Amino acid sequence: MTKTKRQRHLLTLAAGTLLLAAGTARADRPLVSETADVIGAGQCQVETGLAHASASGMASLRSIDVFGSCGVAGHTQLGIALGSSRQAGATDLGLTLVGKHTLKMPEDGAIGYGVAYALGMEKASGGHWRHGSARLLGVATKDLAKGLLGHANLGWERTQADRLNSTLWSLGAESDSGLRWAADVFGDDRSRPWLSAGLLFPLSDKLSANASYAQQFERTRVRLWTLGFKVEL
User: Fold this and answer.
1) What is the H or E stretch that residue 4 is in?
2) Residue 163 has pLDDT above 90, yes or no
3) 109-to-28, 115, 152 alpha-carbon distances in Å
């Protein structure tokens, strides 16, 4: 693979990371790791995010996504996400159906665990909608200390365009009240890991903002900046 193609591939991977919310019914940003809990039945939330990715010698990539989800009966959360990424004048779109089911809630100091899943479609610039990816994750959450939560993910993803199966993994930690921080190390079995950190800013009882920075430890460093908002309905 030439250097230019390798850099373009890295930014394509970055686009997937930028739109990670479209991959699972995930925890509040800026946390990347999926949590083992779900919102209550009948409750809904909407998240939106802007992101910017860059790598040396390549045109930067920008994205926007909107993700809405609701809790349903049986400790299950279902949602739909729409994302758009743009690089060098070309715009790609993604549409993903997501879900998560908690098998055991993380409470009273015990480990909570469950499964998260997603099925995505994609539309490359000038192309047609096609099946994009499928993902299945095992997720776990535990109280590590007062006000500190830890999360672990391990799972599988199939990307149709590359006809590749990948093992996904993630370890994350976050505070659980007030001005919150989150940090994650995550990746797959085909590339070097990412490291991310971010803050969540409560604006009201039902509205919050978040910002994060992430970097992948390839020789050509890919850097991501994100800004997002969440509203609880």
Assistant:
1) helix 3-18
2) no
3) 21, 20, 16
